[in-house]
Amino acid sequence: MAGSRLIDSNGEVRLGIFSEPIGEVNYRDYALESPLDRPRGRLARHFGFNQFQFLGGLSERLIFGCAIADVKIAATAFLYFYEPVTRRFAHFSFRTPLALGCRFDQRPEDGAVSFSWRGDSLAMSATASPQQRHLRVQLASGVRVDATFDESRPPVAPMVLCTGAGASGWVFARKTAGARVSGTAVWEGRRIDLTQLDMLGHNDWTAGYMRRETFWNWGCLSGRLRDGRIVGMNISCGVNETSYTENCFWVDGVLERVSIAAFEYDRHDLMKPWKLRTGDGRVELEFTPQGRHSEKINALVLASNFHQLFGRYAGRFVTASGETLPIEGQLGYMERHYAKW
User: Fold this and answer.
1) How many CA atoms lie within 13 A of 179 on its CB side?
2) Residues of 18-43 as b/e, b for ≥16 C-beta within 10 angstroms?
3) Residue 164's CB: how many other CB atoms inside 10 A?
């Protein structure tokens, strides 16, 4: 198992930006306390911990997104497909109480995540060497995905950090963008060769004792510049901003960190163009949505208002060396999410 453990021998979480992999998010060893400094019991430590993984693929002929989330009192999963040329869209959503059918390893580098219920199965697994993420989906409707996200060609340096959340919580995240995607998908009876699409993808593995009510905006892109270099981006606002930020972009796998970000959009019409910029001026983008996947849950102690849009970015990145990189219609995601868990 690659890397070290996130919680140390004293029950304290290690906060910061990590240059080496974290092998295990051993949250059960964390000395969780209430805001009034009282130790929390076993049930509170169990039900307060949330985690999710998202894998998404972007190409001119097909876009897809797949996620599995375990919030202890429930599990959710989804898969969607979108064809930019025809604008055909299909989505599949699943939910179980008490996270039935859901399994999460605590190893972000080489662990597995799965959701299986009534003939539908979604699974994500990883290998640390070479760095790859594998997605396997088999739905009762006949939909299939068998995809590999290769973070080793060229090597994509992962963004790995842990930040504080509230009085005693924390959030760990491992993310990449711009990984090559290969494999196949079956949708509407058609077999699609992902390897031939020049598809690039995003991976997000997130877990922690998050704020009871959480809200964030998030943006991500993966694409190629005119000169053939692969670019990726991961920007958020509302989460992972205490002392450290997850905001970054990649150029041929090399990670460039940027400052905190602002998202401007019409919250009453999310399909209007968005603006995204970082405080250091190194990311300035406009995002034009083409479609979205949305879910709303209102179950008293659990609530979610989730919108993941997909579309095109235009604008610029500025590297640490001062090079300006034009972003010209690269595909990506944009998100607005409120959660109570």
Assistant:
1) 28
2) beebbbbbbbebbebeeeeeeebeee
3) 18
Phi, psi for residue 173 in degrees, rounded to 5 = -145, 140
DSSP string, 147-163: EEEESBTTB-PPEEEEE
CA distance 88 to 83: 5
Q: Are 109 and 163 in contact (CB under 8 A)?
A: no
- DSSP assignment string, 282-335: SEEEEEEEEEEEEEEEEETTEEEEEEEEEEEEEEEEE-TTS-EEEEEEEEEEEE
CATH of 4-340, one of 3.10.450.10, 3.40.50.300, 2.40.370.10, 3.40.630.30: 2.40.370.10
For the chain, the domains span 4-340
Which region, left, alpha or beta, applies to residue 209 given φ > 0 means left and ψ of -120 to 50 means alpha? beta
pTM of the complete model beyond 0.70: yes
Buried residues in 217-226 as b, exposed as e (16+ CB within 10 A): bbbbbbbebe
User: Phi and psi at residue 47, in whole multiples of 5°?
Assistant: -75, -15
For range 245-250, the mean pLDDT? 98
> By three-state DSSP, how is residue 11 classified?
coil
Quote the tokens at residue 178.
């711009």
Query: CA-CA distance, 337 to 91, in Å (whole number)?
Result: 18
User: Phi, psi at residue 44, to the nearest 5°?
Assistant: -65, -40
Rounded Cα distance, 202 and 103, in Å: 21
- Phi/psi at 266 (nearest 5 deg)? -90, 105
DSSP state of 194: G
Evaluate whether 4 touches 13 at the Cβ level (below 8 Å): no
Written as six digits, the tokens of 264 are 């401007």
Give the model's confidence band at 271: pLDDT under 50 very low, under 70 low, under 90 confident, else very high: very high
Q: Is the pLDDT of residue 1 over 50?
A: no
Tell me how far the alpha carbon of residue 290 is from its chain's centroid: 19
